[in-house]
Amino acid sequence: MHVLIVEDEYSMVEVLEAYLVRDGHEVSYALNGADGLKQFRVKRPDFIILDLMLPDLSGESVLQEVRREADTPVLILSAKSAEEERVQGMLLGADDYVVKPFSPREVMVRIQAIMRRFQKQEEQSEVWSFGGGRLRIRLNERRVICGGEEVHLTPIEYRLLTAMARHPGWVYERAELLEKVQEDLFFEGYERSIDVHVKNLRKKIEVDPRHPEWVETVFGMGYRFRGERDV
């Protein structure tokens, strides 16, 4: 899992990073809100640890921007301890709120709890439907229906599709997609092997794989999912 820490105290970043790396996570960090938003948009982390008292853009503003663009889990770490401040943080869309000073071990446990809830909610969601139902992904059943017919994907193809479909329009570099496959499947591969799996995926879900409707190549960068989620 890729965790982004947005915190202006570098000593605190070091402590959190050490615990996260020990637990097997990849870590990026930003020392101010503007850089935090930039890294969020470029690196697309799986989890965000966010301080509220940042030197430029407030943590509240960062959280609002994140929530406009994604449902990425967010844990607030802040010295703001008043009940009203904690309630406001949760109302803005935080998944949990920990007051400084904090126990790093407690933070790790809270992250695990948030991710369990997040994954369970995702699995229990009914269906991801795109294009008026022409492409449907049943997460809890790990089934994909395209044009009314079920298509049988390999675990790698399924993971690639769901990784991209989670954020339609986002461009994923091959290295990012490789990392997401490796996370779940312990897949040993290299970046260009992603091209082979995308090619096979297109054969199964595209009417014309040479002119794909769903999985688009972004030349010089990687791939993106083009469909918009049905309401």
TrEMBL record:
Taxonomic superkingdom: Bacteria
Keyword field: DNA-binding, Phosphoprotein, Transcription, Transcription regulation, Two-component regulatory system
A biological-process GO annotation: regulation of DNA-templated transcription
SMART domains membership: REC (SM00448), Trans_reg_C (SM00862)
Residue spans binding DNA: 125-227
GO cellular component: cytosol; protein-DNA complex
Domain OmpR/PhoB-type residues, every copy: 125-227
Domain Response regulatory positions: 2-115
Name under which the protein is recorded: DNA-binding response regulator
Source organism of the structure: Alkalicoccus urumqiensis
